[in-house]
Amino acid sequence: xxxxxxNFPVEVLxxxxxxxxxxxxxxxxxxxxxxxxxxxxxxxxxDYTADGFTVxxxxxxxHFPTKMLIGGLRQLxxxxxxxxxxKVTA
Length: 90
What we know:
Blueprint: E1 2-5, H1 12-22, E2 26-29, E3 34-39, E4 42-49, E5 52-59, H2 66-89
Antiparallel strand pairs: 1-5, 2-3, 3-4, 4-5
């Protein structure tokens, strides 16, 4: 499964990675704009392009909580972007 977040400022990537790490999940950046998030149940590959922030969800087993993960990721992204826009316009 792939989800894309358009209009995503690349500056928010590091903040989201830090927040995911705070939840005990491993985040490895392959470059400034792409990388992988791993946990016991599976992995997320992410990259940033002109289209926005794209996440590719890999289901390593049937117990990967895809819906919960997508919901949580969407919330992290939306909150991160909102905080970024508040900083920029302040």
